[in-house]
Design a protein that fits this description.
The protein is α/β, with parallel strands linked by helices. It has a single domain, classed as Glutaredoxin, CATH 3.40.30. Helix content is 41%, strand content 18%. It has a 7-stranded mixed β-sheet, with helices on one face.
Amino acid sequence: MRTGFKLVIILIIVFAINILSQTKLSEGSPAPDFTLQDAFNKEYILSSFFGKSPVVVYFYPAAGTSGCTKQACAIRDDKDKFEKNNIKVFGISTDTKEEIKKFIDDYELNFPLLSDADKIVSKEYGVLRENGSAKRVSFVIDMEGRIAEILEVKDIESHSDFVFNVASKLNKVEKDSD
């Protein structure tokens, strides 16, 4: 009886540690830094953009699925708008580089999609689902590296416009404070 009780307690503790290990980020907290590669082995370091531009980091479940395709194609179509306003955009999924490359090629995507195949960054941002894919969540990060907005994406159609509007306001705030 005691052995069974101890086993239950150990399982509860392991479960609690697993849940707590998923970082719960909030607006105003520092964005966890990361270094990830895109499908072409180019490395991106989040903190290298601090002090230079707002950054949109959006996590998506799987390359090539209908929702992820709509979301990525909208950002693709708005790329000029983001660039003209000095806003960097990264898509991150737990897909392999090969899966991401196919996604990029199939839809002529023109912005960095990063592979978090080891799931470390997705876990740090608290978006890793039990099935191993990322939740559809976007983080708008200000020039100081703080999370300005966290958006659990429900409306894929307006996602690009929404994150653009949030990030472009950050550019205005930075310019006003100069």
